Amino acid sequence: MALTGELLRAVAAGRETGVARVFVPGPTLAFGRLDAREPGFAEAEAAARSHGFTPQIRHAGGRAAAYDHGSLVIELIEPSDSIADGIEARFVALAERVRRVLADVGVATEIGELPGEFCPGRYSLHAAGRKLSGVAQRSIVGASLTTAVIAVEGGGRLRGVLVDVQRALGVAWNPETAGSADEFVPGLTADAVAAAAVADNRFRTTHRR
Predict the structure, then answer these.
(1) Residue 191: its H or E element
(2) Are the C-beta atoms of residues 17 and 192 closer than 8 Å to each other?
């Protein structure tokens, strides 16, 4: 997250022309700023740590989301003339790219909010009632960050930590909506999805870290 912030500021200042990142993260419970205002936030942080997930306040996005070594993060950091302009187009573009990458590894998804999902959003990607990815965005003067997290492996781990975290936050949701892509393609790995993303010509400049 620190590197993402540095890159966003570098693009805004013109030191970078634009950056794409594809990486497998460590176990993280990414809280939204609204979560941090909830009375149960300290309890939710403790619940995340008890599952081995590090609590962080996310750069972009709404409510709590969990990801770990079985997940994949895709970030696009681009110059932007205005904080308000281009938001919808960036959401649509990255959601479609993620949909295409998942299709390339054999997982057909639909784009749209799934009733009862965690961190609800119009650009969630889901299959058979399971949310596999979400797209979020943040803009500052001069640059925008559009990011997607794909749950590739370990849907059970992610459901487990989210159940306890959401309970502490007092957020109502349906745990059955949290899934992972390997539930549809057994044996699928985060590295395989990363390779598919890098192979996509729209991610040619991507590096992993």
Answers:
(1) helix 190-199
(2) no
Strands of the sheet containing 54-57, edge to edge, are 54-57, 28-31, 65-67
Name the residue ranges covered by the structural domains of the chain.
2-203
Q: Mind listing the pLDDT tens digit for each residue in 2-59? A: 899 899 999 999 999 888 999 999 999 999 999 999 999 999 999 999 999 999 998 7
What is the residue-wise DSSP string for 138-176?
A: EEETEEEEEEEEEE-S-HHHHHHHHHHHHHHHT----GG
Helix axes 190-199, 87-104, angle to 10 degrees: 120
Most confident of 5-9, 71-75, 198-202: 71-75
Mean pLDDT of the chain: 92
Contact indicator for 99, 111 with CB cutoff of 8 Å:
yes
**Is CATH 3.30.930.10 the classification given to domain 2-203?**
yes
| Contact by Cβ (8 Å): 149, 71 | yes
Q: How many CA atoms lie within 13 A of 151 on its CB side?
A: 28
Question: Would you say residue 209 has pLDDT above 50?
Answer: no
Structure tokens at 7: 């890159």
CB 105 within 8 A of CB 171: no
